[in-house]
Amino acid sequence: MRAALSSRLPLLALVGSCAALAACGKSGLPAHSEGGSAEAVPAVSAQGAVGVATKNTTRLGGADPASDAAAVARTAYPGLTTASRPRAVVLVDEHDWPAALAASSLASAPLGAPILYSNGDTLPSATVEALHAMRPVGAATLGGAQVIRIGTTASVPEGLRTRSTPSTTEPAAAAADVAHLLSLAHGGDPHQVIVLASSSAPALQMPAAGLAAESGSPILYVTAAHVPAPTVAALKGLHQPAIYLMNPQAVNSHVLAALAHYGHVTPIADIAAAATDSPVENANAVARFTDGTFGWGVKEPGHGLVFANTSRPLDAPASALLSAIGDYGPLLLLESPNGVSPALASYLGDIQPAYSSAPQFQPVHGAYNHGWLIGDDSAISALTQAEIDSLLEITPRRVSPSEEEPVASPTE
């Protein structure tokens, strides 16, 4: 089990300290050796990247998705040494939700690319500052590209090598292009894919971002009644991959039958019918789901967790990197900035850390949970942050006399 970072963080977390902690986590990403030296670089102002931390939570971001994405990126990659610079950064138009969600898979190891947002063909100041600060070194498997533009022609700072996917308004085509990039970046085709209906509500699609980043699985789209040609071509090229279908209730039986021609289909988040339209319960179910080596399977304490508001779906791709680096957290959702829903509180209660109150046990040997909160108070209020902190706190658990170890008698 993973001991979380948060209980080691001070009350106020600045980007430098928070970034250093995150970058030293269990990222699975080898140190970068391409380009530049390991010398420190001048500090760059970090718009949106300063967050308030409690003993079990760290807040990242600001009032908009561009600031949130920049905060996550700079926490994972402060750019102070060669090893803390990304190989490449993904740049995607914040108005293109399907492409942004599909791009989440590029955050997976070994590429580990953070996502930044453009506003159409212009770059928000937070994005520009993040690019200057992180100084991506270039991904050899992608021709040395430092910035991967997904469906945008926004100009990047001078001197950065770019690679672009074709601009398209069709979700299936955009996702298939990202899947091809993922295969190139990984040096081989993935063995599993995540499929979801492009017509389902973005709040129900949000958990796919973290799952794709953690698993390295591309996201592909179907419609409620049809498997589009770009998705068919991508699935055929992967030669019978394991297909994990998110929100299976959003597609009809013809889609299920068609997908079965291209690989074994397994539903993700098979929750009660009454809860199929609940983004919170859907995210909880995705966090619990496991199938062999695929899936989070978070059913016990000792994990990172990422919290976002359903009203800001772009925060899911923005935070996807936190599912593939540091303490690897599944995405959990709040439907209001003010308060934790009973469904989320119940799930957090199920995985709340505890230690035995017997005298021979100490909390220092326990497992810890840590929460990353994405966005400012308009996304998750300070009161809600305090409530989440309490639900993540390790607590004493009373033990029965039979559980207590007998105390050895003194020898004469």
Could you explain the architecture of this structure?
- By secondary structure, the chain is of the alpha/beta class.
- The protein contains 13 helices and 16 strands.
- 29% of the residues lie in helices and 16% in strands.
- The strands form five sheets. It has a four-stranded parallel β-sheet with strand order 3-15-12-13.
- Helix 11 links the parallel strand 12 and strand 13 (331-334).
Whole-angstrom Rg: 21 Å
Whole-number average pLDDT?
86
Binned strand content? 15-25%
Q: Judging from the principal axes of the Cα atoms, what is the shape?
A: globular
Tally the helices: what do you get? 13
Number-wise, the strands total 16
Which features does this protein show?
about 400 residues; alpha/beta; four-stranded parallel beta sheet; 13 helices; 16 strands; globular; disordered N terminus; disordered C terminus
What would a concise description of this structure say?
The protein has 412 residues and is α/β, with parallel strands linked by helices. The protein has 13 helices and 16 strands.
Question: What's the SSE blueprint?
Answer:
Layout: E1 12-13, H1 15-23, E2 51-52, E3 57-60, H2 65-76, E4 89-93, H3 97-103, E5 115-118, H4 125-134, E6 147-150, E7 162-164, H5 171-186, E8 192-197, H6 202-205, H7 207-215, E9 219-222, H8 229-237, E10 242-246, H9 253-260, E11 265-268, H10 279-288, E12 304-309, H11 315-318, E13 331-334, H12 342-350, E14 354-356, E15 370-374, H13 382-392, E16 395-397
Parallel strand pairs: 3-15, 4-5, 4-6, 6-7, 8-9, 8-10, 10-11, 12-13, 12-15, 14-16
Antiparallel strand pairs: 1-2
Helix pairs in contact: 1-2, 2-4, 3-5, 5-8
